[in-house]
Amino acid sequence: MSKRVLVAALHHESNSFNPIIADEKDFSIAKGEEIFQRLRPNDSLSGIVYTLLGMGWDVVPLLSARAVPNGEVSSRLYTELKTDLLSRAKDAQDQAPVDALVLSLHGSMRVENLGEAEGDMLKALRELFPQIPILCSLDMHATMTKDMHQLANGYVGYKCAPHIDCSETGAHAARMAIEALEHGAQPYSAWCSIPMVIAGEKSETTTEPMVTLIAELRKTEKKHGIMAASFLMGFPWANHSGHGVSAYVVSDGNPELAQAEAKRLADLFWSYRHEFVFHTETHGNIKAIDRCFEEVNAGNTPVYLSDSGDNPTAGSSGDVTGLLVDLMNHPKTTDCPIPPLFGGIYDPPAVQHCMNHIGERISLEFGALFDTKNNQRLSCDVEVLATVKKWGDFEADMALIRVQNVDVVLVSKHIGYIDPEMFRVLGANPAERDVVVCKLGYLTDPQRKVAQKSIMALSSGSTNEALETLPYEEINRPIYPLDQEMEFKAQVVQVQ
Ligand SMILES: [Zn+2]
Q: What angle in degrees, to the nearest 10, is found between the helix axes of 255-271 and 210-221?
């Protein structure tokens, strides 16, 4: 019999060390039927919608809100989104009975003055729909909480980082709803929290120990009675007490099985704790720059250098100048026949200033507009080489400036340096450069295709990879690797 299912998406990874408060201009928001027109490939909401439509069911889209990771979300925007989503859910309920909710969530979204967003949103939805199944897909970097655990029937997280399995994961969440509604499955979830913080750069799923751990999840999901098994890695650049990796298992009505598997997976994960290491060559700024020039001398160009402490794709501000200053002042940079290319600095007023001075030499202040801690605003004579308006999905204005023999990209939006095309549209082909700096951690696939060699600088910023040095005030201790000698035995998190 045809069923009626409500769907929605809420995606933001909130870095509380980044002082930016994310608002409307940072989000892509779609409401109601508009969501169907804007479904994207490799997206968990798309996986949910197409799987449910494939059943011939009535799929009611409520709201989709997503952004590039950034600082915490504005409380005003979150309240607006929540009010809108709830009123659409109520209207849908008034029109006809609702059989289930399937949600595409990130799981590490935080709101200023509130804390976790997903638990708060689920509380309101659960009040509206006390009985029906709620199933959710999550980002792999989700932070499980007691509210989230209690208020939904089942979760499944991505199994790939970089996240290339978003649609599949959405489809998996939808299939759990189908199992529940068509075949009487009763999703029962068990959760074990593992006291660890891990940077994404140490846990790509193409490297060990994640290859082994993810293979174990897939094996677990083949076991009779298991509906989903996930490792939710948490998000380290946030200051709260709920940090941790989670082993999360959904069984079909079998609490003992779910609990035993969650415990087994958590202990297994912990046993590999010493094996999470950087897989890219990694150094402090100066050594990293030295190594880049050595690779240039050896002919391995372009060398890509990641400004990993200020990586907007992990929620950093994107305006930190530390590595740029070190590169500008490095003696080898001055003599470079081909200026290094630096992507980039988020500074809307500086971009606008450049727009009026193409081809001119001007004095320009830029950088440290948002993250003013340990970060230096620069005042330099620069040459404006090129500008571009409304580039890409985010319609960013961009400028390319030359400063002390470094070509620097300035951007008007908080975007990630994921695509070499953003350099090419400014007339700077990274394939023809010797050194290309990107504000990234591990390189994205499109950048990796250009790079002949990749080095990561442990630079400063709100995605500082040296987690042991972060100014955590509220984190629960002990936690690994901050507490090296601690012991751990997995236990199921009990909620009343
Ligand atoms: Zn993620």
A: 170
Question: CA-to-CA distance for 117 and 425, rounded, in angstroms?
Answer: 37
**In this predicted model, what pLDDT tens digit does every residue of 410-459 receive, in sequence order?**
999 999 999 999 999 999 999 999 999 999 999 988 999 999 999 999 99
Q: 91 CA to middle of ligand 1, Å?
A: 32
Tell me the CA–centroid distance for residue 246 and ligand 1, in Å.
14
CA of 160 to the centre of ligand 1 (A): 9
Please report the pLDDT score of residue 496 as a whole number: 60
Cα–Cα dist 331/309, whole Å: 23
DSSP string, 230-274: EEE---SSS-STT--EEEEEEEES-HHHHHHHHHHHHHHHHHTGG
Å from CA of 432 to ligand 1 middle: 31
Q: How far is the CA of 356 from the centre of ligand 1 (A)?
A: 38
Per DSSP, the residues of 345-388 read: EE-HHHHHHHHT-TT-EEEEEES-SS--TT---EEEEEEEEEEE
Give 235 Cα–ligand 1 centroid separation in angstroms. Answer: 8
- Give tens-digit pLDDT for 69-80: 999 999 999 999
Domain ranges of the chain: 4-275, 281-464
pTM as predicted: 0.94
Question: Ligand 1 mean position to 230 CA, how many Å?
Answer: 13
pLDDT per position as a tens digit, 457-496: 999 999 999 998 888 989 999 999 999 999 999 999 988 6
Q: How far is the CA of 236 from the centre of ligand 1 (A)?
A: 11
Residue 468 φ/ψ, nearest 5 degrees:
-60, -20
C-alpha distances in Å from residue 46, one per residue of 161, 170, 174, 397: 19, 7, 10, 29
From ligand 1's centre to the CA of 433, what distance in Å?
30
Q: How many angstroms does the Cα of residue 93 sit away from the middle of ligand 1? A: 32
